[in-house]
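Methods — Computational structure assignment.
A single polypeptide chain was analysed. Its primary sequence is given first, followed by the predicted tertiary structure written as structure tokens.
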Amino acid sequence: MSPEAPFPFERLRRTPDAEGPGLVAVDAADRLLLDESENARSDAAPGTIVVIGDAYGALALGAAHDGAVGVRVHQDGLVGEQALARNAAEVGLDVISVPLDADAVRAARVVLLRLPRSLDALRDIAGLIAAYADPAVVVFAGGRIKHMSVAMNDVLREVFDRVDVTHARQKSRVLIARGPHDGGDPVPAAGRDGDLELRAFGGAFAGAKLDIGTRLLLAHLPSTPPGGTPDDPLIDLACGTGAVAAHLALRHPSAVVSASDQSAVAVASARATMVANGVADRVEVVQDDALHRLPDASVSFVALNPPFHSGAAVSDLIAPRLFADAARALRQGGALWCVWNSALRYRSELERIVGPTRQVARDRKFTVTVSTRR
């Protein structure tokens, strides 16, 4: 059923995500997944193909190009979803972006899955597919060999009768799973650190525990941060599981707090963390690309532990992008409190993008700074 003209992978872009050397919109694992699943997709009825973890749309758009109708696609990252929409418009194809829930995989006959880095994330996804997909579903789960492990086979075998392994090609490989059984909805892991309850679905940064960088930041946040009103909430940017937002809400019982992350699994985890700490009524958690939902010069306080991964790639382009949007959203004189790996030497970037920056704390690995908006 494949058309004569090959799919124009070269037209796909990562925008609005970071673009740069080593950061690609499509790779050999995407191509291998499409090739390995071609026969299964050719027999699939409309609306029965699901794609999960599609970085910037190569899998979903590749399937649509080959004739699939009603392809459902979930991407954890909001910027990936936005890039998919742009890429779909560029190549003139339609797919359906969906949240990762029972309806996303219900009655699916073919699932294309880019293997997540986290085994817990894979376990959540596999369980959902096994619970709600068609009993005859075939799952094609692929990735770059350097990011794969034998443990991934074992996780799939927990809820599938059979897992086959393809030959490697261009340092990529695909696992093919059949015979779903004993699936279920994901349940967040639970942890506690002092008075702070943490909840984390599979794949959330640091899981249900406090990472050491965030711990250092929490220990040095100001005792009376500016803002905290409905019109000027305290902001936890790139919130992950919501540890900073929950800490702020617990420490300042009258404050209004807003947390955001571009990751859907982080947002779900942070919302569960707020419920566990009894502060969900005062903490708004939203999925957002940086702070795009906020007007210019609208807040006085932002806390940030910036990520340094874009998918599987390590990149130093992500943090400056977050610094810039924090600077845009901060009022003059407002403060960005940031923790970062000292080896990354972000201070000059913070000085340039936000304003005067001073070191508040430093340990063997991390630095905490506060930058004042010019």
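Note: The chain has two domains: 9-180, 189-372.
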